[in-house]
Amino acid sequence: MAKVIPDLTEQQLDELPSSAEAKVYRALRERLSGDYVVFFQIGWVLQRQDEHARDGEADFVICHPSSGYLCVEVKGGGISFEAATGDWYSIDRHQQKHKITNPVTQAMRAKYSIRSKLAESQRWRDLGIKNVIRGHAVFFPDIGDTRPMTRADLPVKLIGCMSDLQNPSPWIENAFAYWHNQDKTQTRLGPRGLEIFQEVFARSFEVRPLISALLQEQEQRRLRLTKNQLRVLDFLRSHRRAAVCGGAGTGKTVLAVEKARRLSAEGFRTLLTCYNRQLADHLALVCRGTPNLEVMSFHQLCHRFVEQANKLSGRDLVGEAKLTYPGKDLYDVQLPNALAYSLEVLPDRFDAIVCDEGQDFREEYWVPLELMLADYQGSPLYIFFDDNQNLYSRAQTFPIHDEPYLLTTNCRNTDQIHAAAYRYYRGAQVDPPDNPGADIQTIEARGREQQAERLHSQIVGLISREGIAPEDMVVLIADARHKSDYYALLRRLPLPRPAIWLEEGPRGGSTVLLDTVPRFKGLESPVVFLWGIDSDTSQKQELLYVGISRAKSLLFLVGNTEACSSLRG
Length: 569
Hints:
Mean pLDDT: 89
Low-confidence stretches: 391-395
Number of helices: 20
Shape: elongated
Strand order of the largest sheet: 1-2-3-4-8-9
Strand content: 15-25%
Distance between the termini: 47 Å
Structural class: alpha/beta
Number of strands: 21
Helix content: 25-40%
């Protein structure tokens, strides 16, 4: 059985536009010896064209190392030639004539054009075969008698017909012999010549898409999923107060921002707040320029109102809170109460408040927030939360009495990242996204210094070879207590210009952010490197859930072999 390139299935052969070509393909594949290599429907473009050698294609090119190559043009149906006009026709089963291109000329031009194309290959020139055996022929698989077709430019030996389908070898051997006898200086192709012929006309290749292109495709799918989540806003439209609960990636922040924007567009003076300063800065950037909408973290809110009240009243509200709550934490107790005191002085109130990452708010925060509403009991208040992201061990009692609305579909991560993150999730069922992605990857080394070097090498490769923007990558440290050690190890390793490392700052162009998992809560990044997973922490389950789920498309686990293997399952 001959090797035919490409190797088509029976279904593919049945679907070919030309049944004649399918007949010849099957005959050559099944009835030629394994020494032959047959190329089907090949094409080429020449560096330089001339009168004889032009860009072209061939139905079949039959090669044999002991001979050379034979270009064969195939035409189905009956065949007619009118000498007066030089026109060729095929004849269908209804005896209708259809004008066709001269098959002899097609095969001959392909023969010379292939010679020119081979000459462009340095490997072919190095081989030194200056005049390989080459020929052209035609094959009419629906014709029984070829003798009436014989012409000066078409000897009978170069015409294949129906009977040759049963045993094509003698016909092919005769065709090769005919052309070799025409020019005794021609030499054989040889095994190396056949190898180069295949390299030129049927070289296999695999060029995978850039990772950056895959990320863009996944982001388009993600946008469609996120739009589906906006149906929740229809529910919120008819409820002045509501809590919305969902696991990581279910679109809570997207919905919180959209609800805040809609409220402000309806004329409500709206506050969009959260616990995490990093998230607040991001939301402020996203919502910049939106009328009637103010965005700040809860403690930014405390500082702003307390400072304004101190200036108006001459009081020291934080000092008063410290006297009332001696020994209590400044941020957890004293500042929230100072905020409540400021409302005795300031008349400013919000018509609506939207709170994201509500699981991080202590019970002491809710009273001053409610007092900031124009109507303590009736003004709109919406809280978005995830019980599984309670890294700060906050209270879970919200000033909303109805059961929370549940978000049940992850629309941020890929399927693989969802599966890894939700191993550490406890709560209502969250369906995985319909967004397949790459497997989770590991960067394994025994110590931090070697881990840093391998992590750095991976980031450099993603920037320089895969086209990923530096700002689309984040290195998150799970071991926040020693974050400065991790930062220092990377800071000494340069990135391709103009990229630079950015430690705990607002993400911008050409920066790779270094941050901790708790600080990055509520945020996301196309590519995340989760480092420091070797260290034991009292909240490792929550840290892993939050850290893994920050990655939208690509996740790299960085640590020793044992830790990486454990997280990958």
